[in-house]
């Protein structure tokens, strides 16, 4: 089947706190289901794809991963167990995300933006989990201190900075230069770039989901700083 003309509406962009939604089936394979809209976040930018359930009239499907179609990024797939074979296009379903896992991702993703604001170096890698995360920085010298990073991160969190999404529709090339991650391009969708702004602390192009206030992150600790290569320092943080 040709999936190039299909499109999933991204509910998580405007409603990251949405936990349940209704949708219609767009397409199904032996293992995955595409819907006309979803609040399941598709893996990308270091943030894992959401998990949860899709409830149809005659069955409940466990969603084990969510991702964008490789050839058509406008289409989002949900890996399902058991497979969605037999679900017809246009059939109504209900989606329920694993909220505790997603909320952990939102808190940690926002925390990593704050970490990025503290270290003046390009980011070469990122990984986010529900209880921890890490950023890799292009730093030739070991100039980082765990205790200092922990202290400064928690100070930023406690200030209760507002976090908001900004959509850039003009000067996109200039906006893309704000991207700190060297190997990842800014997320461009429908001629606009989504940015995440944390008060006057940080402004970054980002397509992930985030909390509305830095205080929602909770207390964190810089657990480890590693030298991964001559120009690579890995900074790992976790919730306390």
UniProtKB/TrEMBL annotation:
Transmembrane segments: none annotated. It comes from the Bacteria. One of its GO terms (biological process) is alanyl-tRNA aminoacylation. It is found in: Cytoplasm. Its main location: cytoplasm. The keyword Nucleus does not apply. One of its GO terms (cellular component) is cytoplasm. InterPro entries: Ala-tRNA-synth_IIc_core, Ala-tRNA-synth_IIc_N, Alanyl-tRNA_Editing_Enzymes, Thr/Ala-tRNA-synth_IIc_edit, Transl_B-barrel_sf, tRNA_SAD. GO terms for molecular function: alanine-tRNA ligase activity; aminoacyl-tRNA deacylase activity; ATP binding; metal ion binding; nucleic acid binding. Its cofactor is Zn(2+). The keyword S-adenosyl-L-methionine does not apply. Residues 1-240 form the Alanyl-transfer RNA synthetases family profile domain. Keywords: Hydrolase, Metal-binding, Zinc. This is Alanine--tRNA ligase. It comes from Rhodopseudomonas palustris (strain BisB18). The lineage of its organism: Bacteria, Pseudomonadati, Pseudomonadota, Alphaproteobacteria, Hyphomicrobiales.
């Amino acid at each position: 089947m040709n999936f190039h003309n299909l499109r999933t509406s991204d509910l998580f962009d405007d409603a990251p706190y949405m936990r349940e939604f209704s949708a219609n089936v767009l397409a199904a394979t032996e293992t995955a289901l595409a819907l006309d809209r979803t609040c399941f976040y598709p893996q990308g930018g270091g943030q894992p794809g959401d998990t949860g359930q899709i409830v149809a009239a005659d069955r409940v499907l466990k969603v084990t991963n969510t991702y964008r179609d490789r050839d058509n990024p406008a289409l989002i797939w949900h890996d399902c167990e058991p497979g969605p074979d037999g679900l017809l296009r246009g059939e109504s379903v209900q989606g329920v995300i694993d909220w505790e896992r997603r909320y952990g991702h939102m808190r940690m993703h926002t925390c990593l933006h704050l970490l990025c604001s503290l270290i003046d170096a390009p980011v070469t890698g990122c990984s986010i989990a529900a209880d921890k995360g890490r950023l890799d920085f292009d730093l030739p010298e070991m100039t980082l201190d765990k205790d200092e990073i922990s202290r400064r991160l928690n100070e930023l969190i406690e200030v209760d900075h507002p976090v908001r999404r900004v959509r850039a529709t003009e000067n996109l090339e200039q906006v893309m230069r704000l991207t700190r991650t060297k190997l990842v391009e800014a997320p461009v969708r429908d001629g606009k770039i989504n940015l995440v702004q944390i008060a006057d602390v940080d402004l970054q192009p980002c397509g992930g989901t985030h909390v509305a206030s830095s205080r929602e992150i909770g207390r964190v600790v810089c657990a480890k700083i590693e030298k991964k290569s001559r120009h690579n320092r890995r900074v790992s943080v976790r919730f306390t």
